[in-house]
Design a protein that fits this description.
It is built from three helices and no strands. It is mainly alpha-helical. It is elongated, with a radius of gyration of 20 Å. 1% of the residues are buried. The model has no long low-confidence stretch (mean pLDDT 92).
Length: 83
């Protein structure tokens, strides 16, 4: 019978902030590992390949993992147990 609205909002906000920070840092580390050169007119082929991977293949991999995880959820069974 206790209200936990504020706790849920706080954890959601914390998750968004941490996820954004880690995501941006990870992108920077990946570009650094690929040989990114700041302010260069032309980037090395390794950097272009990393950008290609980051914008095409990485989202595809994440979407496949998320789709698999969501397909394993049993929402109806959980709802029945809560009712």
């Amino acid at each position: 019978g206790k209200r936990i609205d504020f706790t849920m909002y706080s954890f959601t906000s914390l998750g968004v902030k941490l996820g954004g920070g880690v995501g941006v840092a990870l992108a920077g580390w990946m570009l650094d590992a690929s040989g990114y050169i700041a302010n260069a007119a032309v980037q090395p082929a390794s950097c272009i390949n990393m950008l290609y991977f980051m914008y095409l293949w990485l989202p595809l991999i994440f979407n496949l993992v998320i789709t698999f995880l969501l397909s394993r959820l049993r929402v109806e069974q959980a709802t029945e147990q809560l009712a």
